[in-house]
Design a protein that fits this description.
Largest sheet of chain A: none
CATH topology of one domain in chain B: Rossmann fold
Strand content of chain A: under 5%
Order of helices and strands of chain A: HHHHHHHHHHHHH
Structural class of chain B: alpha/beta
Number of helices of chain A: 13
CATH class of chain A: Mainly Alpha
CATH superfamily of chain A: ABC transporter involved in vitamin B12 uptake, BtuC
Distance between the termini of chain A: 37 Å
Largest sheet of chain B: 6 strands, mixed
Number of strands of chain A: 0
CATH class of one domain in chain B: Alpha Beta
Radius of gyration of chain A: 18 Å
Oligomer: heterodimer
Radius of gyration of chain B: 19 Å
CATH architecture of one domain in chain B: 3-Layer(aba) Sandwich
Order of helices and strands of chain B: HEEEHEHEHHHEHEEEH
Low-confidence stretches of chain B: 245-261
Helix content of chain A: over 70%
Number of domains of chain A: 1
Number of helices of chain B: 8
Strand content of chain B: 15-25%
C-alpha cells in the first residue's frame, strides 16, 4: 500500500478521486432527483465531439470538451423545456451526432491517437496537476452555488410548477444546474471516461435516495459512496491490472444492485 | 377599512378567455369571476380544460385571447396571493423529502433568495402543519404517507403564505372516501376562516355540500355563481344526460328534476 502511495501519479489519482466524488455527490443528487439522467448522459457523449475537434485543431482537449459540453447542456436543456414531444429522441440524436463528430475528427487527425481512448474510458492515473486544479475550481464553484441556492434547488427538483407559482427564478436555476452538469461531466470524463459517466453520476445518489429523506444527507452519502467506489476501484484495478474506469463502475453497479435488494427486503428501512 | 373591503374587486376576473397549448385551443370563451369568500367547485370531464384554467389563473400559460386579472393585477404578480395545491403526482411517491421540508417550500419566494428560513417561518410551518393535523408526521418522509395525508401536506404548504384564494386541482384524486371527507372538512374550515376556495375535479361523487357555488367545465364554462347544477349544464358539459343522484352526489346540490326549466 505504501508502495502505491509513493507514485506521484497515484497520489494525483487519489486526490482526483476525492474531488470527483464531491462533484458526483452534489450534482449527481440533483441529476437523480430532477430526473435529468438521460440529459447528463447526452451531454457527456456530445462532449466527445469537442474532444475530437480539439485534437484535430491541436488545442487542449479539455477546452474542446468544456465548450461542447456546455453547448450540449444548453441545447438539451432548451430542448427539454421547450418541446413538448420527442425530447428524448432529440437528446438521443444529439448524443449520437456528438460522438460521430468526435470520431470523424479523430479519423482526420494524423498520427497517434491512443490518447483519445482515455476520454472514452477514462484514465484516472493520467490525471495531471493542471487537471487537479481545474477539478478543484469546478468543485468550489459547484458547492458554493448549491449551498447558496440549496432550498430553491430542492424546491424546483421537487415541484417546479409550485416553485414557479412562488415566483422563484426557475429558468435561471435550471440554467445554473445544467451548466454545473456540463462542468461536472468534463471533470468525470478524465476519471471514468464519458461512456461511464452516467453511472458514477447517478449510482451513488440513487442509493442515497433509496434510504434517506433529506437532500443534503443524500448528497453526503453519495459523496462518501463515490469516494469508496473511486478509491476502491483504483486500488483493485492497480493490483489486478484492470482498466480503472471500468473497475470503478462495476463496483458501483454491484453496490447499487445490492442496495436495491436490501431496500426491497427491509420494509421499515430507517428514513 | 370596511369601505375598502366593500369596494374591493373580485379575486379573479376572467373575460372572453381562449387558452390552450401551441395551436390547440382547450378553453373557449370563458368568463369567470371569483368573489371573496366563495367556495367554488368546478366539475368537468378529463381533458375538459380544468387544469388549463388553473394554469391560466396562475400565470403558467398565457391566454390566446381575452384577459385574466388576479387581485386586479396580472396573474404573474397576483399569484403571490394564491395558495396552489397541485394534483398528486406519481413522482411524489418516490421523491425523498420530509413532510416539514415540503411545507417550508411555501415560504420561499424571489424576495428572499439568499436568506435562510427564519424562526418566523418555523412557527408558521408548525402552525399550518397543526391545522391540517399533520404536525406529528412532520419528520416523516413524504413518500411514506397516504394520498390523503400528502394532499393535506400540500394544503398546509399552500396556507403558509396566508393566501386570499386557495386553488386546488383534483384534491381528492386517488384518495379514499374517508380521507376525502377529512380534506373537505379542512377546506370548509379554511373557507370559514375567510379564505376563498376554488377547486376543480372530474369526480362528481366528491363534490361536497360544503361548496357554495358549482360550475361545469368542458372547454366552455357553465357557471352562474349558484349552488345548483341543472340537467342542462350537465348535458352541455358531458354531452349526455348524467344521473348525479345515482352517483351519490348530495341531492341538495342538485336542482330538482321536476319543475325546472
Amino acid at each position: 500500500m505504501s508502495e502505491l502511495l509513493s507514485y506521484s501519479f497515484m497520489q494525483n489519482a487519489l486526490i482526483a478521486g476525492v474531488l470527483v466524488s464531491l462533484a458526483c455527490g452534489v450534482i449527481g443528487t440533483l441529476v437523480v432527483l430532477k430526473r435529468m439522467v438521460f440529459i447528463a448522459g447526452g451531454v457527456a457523449h456530445t462532449a466527445y465531439g469537442g474532444v475530437g475537434m480539439a485534437f484535430y485543431f491541436g488545442i487542449n482537449p479539455i477546452l474542446g470538451a468544456v465548450t461542447f459540453s456546455l453547448l450540449a447542456s444548453f441545447l438539451m436543456g432548451y430542448v427539454q423545456r421547450q418541446t413538448r414531444q420527442r425530447q428524448d429522441t432529440l437528446i438521443g440524436v444529439m448524443w449520437a451526432i456528438g460522438m460521430a463528430v468526435g470520431i470523424i475528427f479523430a479519423d482526420m487527425t494524423p498520427g497517434y491517437k491512443a490518447d483519445l481512448m482515455s476520454y472514452l474510458f477514462g484514465s484516472i492515473l493520467a490525471v495531471t496537476q493542471v487537471d487537479l486544479w481545474m477539478m478543484l475550481g469546478v468543485n468550489i464553484l459547484v458547492i458554493s452555488l448549491v449551498v447558496l441556492f440549496y432550498k430553491e434547488l430542492q424546491a424546483t427538483a421537487f415541484d417546479e410548477t409550485y416553485a414557479r407559482v412562488r415566483n422563484l427564478p426557475v429558468d435561471l436555476l435550471y440554467l445554473m444546474l445544467i451548466t454545473m452538469i456540463g462542468l461536472a461531466v468534463v471533470m468525470l470524463m478524465r476519471v471514468v471516461g464519458l461512456i461511464m459517466i452516467i453511472a458514477l453520476l447517478t449510482v451513488p445518489a440513487a442509493i442515497g435516495s433509496l434510504f434517506l429523506k433529506h437532500m443534503k444527507h443524500i448528497m453526503l452519502l453519495a459523496t462518501a459512496l463515490s469516494l469508496v467506489f473511486t478509491t476502491g476501484g483504483l486500488i483493485i484495478s492497480f493490483f489486478f491490472n484492470l482498466t480503472s474506469g471500468a473497475t470503478i463502475i462495476l463496483i458501483s453497479g454491484v453496490t447499487y444492485l445490492a442496495a436495491l435488494v436490501i431496500h426491497k427486503h427491509c420494509q421499515r428501512c430507517p428514513e | 377599512m370596511e369601505m375598502l373591503e366593500l369596494i374591493s374587486q373580485p379575486l379573479v376576473k376572467i373575460k372572453d378567455l381562449y387558452a390552450g397549448y401551441n395551436h390547440e385551443t382547450v378553453l373557449f370563451d370563458i368568463d369567470l369571476t371569483i368573489e371573496k369568500g366563495d367556495f367554488i367547485g368546478l366539475i368537468g370531464p378529463n381533458g375538459g380544460g380544468k387544469t388549463t384554467l388553473l394554469k391560466v389563473m396562475l400565470g403558467l400559460i398565457k391566454p390566446q385571447r381575452g384577459t385574466v386579472q388576479v387581485m386586479g393585477d396580472s396573474p404573474e404578480r397576483g399569484r403571490s396571493h394564491i395558495g396552489y395545491v397541485p394534483q398528486l403526482a406519481e413522482y411524489d411517491a418516490t421523491f425523498p423529502i420530509s413532510v416539514r421540508d415540503v411545507v417550508r417550500m411555501g415560504r420561499l419566494s424571489n424576495q428572499r433568495l439568499f436568506k435562510p428560513y427564519s424562526k418566523e417561518d418555523d412557527v408558521i410551518v408548525s402552525e399550518r402543519l397543526a391545522w391540517v393535523d399533520m404536525l406529528e408526521h412532520q419528520d416523516r418522509a413524504l413518500r411514506e404517507l397516504s394520498g390523503g395525508q400528502r394532499q393535506r401536506v400540500y394544503i398546509a404548504r399552500a396556507l403558509t403564505t396566508d393566501p386570499k384564494l386557495l386553488v386546488l386541482d383534483e384534491p381528492t384524486i386517488s384518495v379514499d372516501i374517508e380521507a376525502s371527507a377529512l380534506i373537505y372538512d379542512l377546506l370548509y374550515r379554511v373557507n370559514q376562516g375567510g379564505v376563498t376556495v376554488f377547486l376543480v375535479t372530474h369526480d362528481l361523487n366528491v363534490i361536497s355540500s360544503y361548496v357554495k357555488t358549482i360550475g361545469c367545465l368542458n372547454r366552455r364554462l357553465h357557471y352562474h355563481g349558484e349552488k345548483q347544477v341543472t340537467d342542462e349544464m350537465l348535458r352541455a358539459t358531458y354531452g349526455c344526460p348524467v344521473d348525479l343522484i345515482a352517483h351519490g352526489l348530495p341531492h341538495r346540490v342538485l336542482a330538482e328534476h321536476e319543475g325546472q326549466h
